Every structure is written in structure tokens, then in C-alpha cells.
Predict the 3D structure of the following.
Amino acid sequence: MHEKEVVRRAFAMPLTNPAYPPGPYRFVNREYLSITYRTDPAKLRSVVPAPLELDEREALVKYEFIRMPDSNGFGDYTESGQVIPVSFRGRRGGYTHCMFLNDEGPIAGGRELWGFPKKLGQPTCGPRSIRSSALWITVRCG
């Protein structure tokens, strides 16, 4: 393989068989469910890396469940994960603690392109039965 070919193909690994195509990427028709809950500040502190700062008065976690039915380059997949509100030098943001997805391409792309902590899992969300209005969420990983 010549150097120009290496440069052209060097957007993802492995070089000769990447897990996703080159961008640009579009994510359309997404379905979101976001749940915010309060938790033990000591437990959050144990997973948030320095130098990020945690507001102990607001010991919150956002659990997000996202259906991605139409993502060019990545196809149809589902992801879920936890985002913890943090700050860095006074600027507020979110620390993505973990994410679980059911497809290899978006896992590799999310890690290699954007640095998200994505792992293989089987997130599902939906009513328990057709007659039920209760929503259930499961994530199987391991």
C-alpha cells in the first residue's frame, strides 16, 4: 500500500477494514429518554476523575437512553449511559461515565472519533405489554 493510500484510509482502525465509514455523520429521527436522579456524593466522587469538580449539593446523575434509527455511516442502533454534571475551572459541563451500545460501528466511532467510553451492551426501552403504560428499561452487558 502506498503512502497516499494509507493517508486516504487512515480515518479509522483497522486500516484495511474500518468499523465505520468516513464522515460527515448525521443522526436523525433520534428518540431520547433522560432521567435525572440524586445519588450519594461520595460514590460520585469515586468515579469522577480529577481535575473535574463535582457540586456535592447537586449530586445528580443523568441516565440517557437514545434510539438512533437513522445514523448515516452507523446504521440503526441503541445506546444508553450515565452523564454526571461537573465543572472544570468554573466552566460547567458533563462527564460521560459510561455508555452501552448494541452495535460495533458506533462503539468504535464513538471511542475513536469523540472519546466516549462506549462498551457493548443490549439497552432496551419500552412498555411491558401493549396494555401497559409503564415504561421499563434494561441494559445487559458483560
In short: The radius of gyration is 18 Å. The CA atoms of residues 9 and 16 lie 8 Å apart. The longest strand covers residues 75-88.
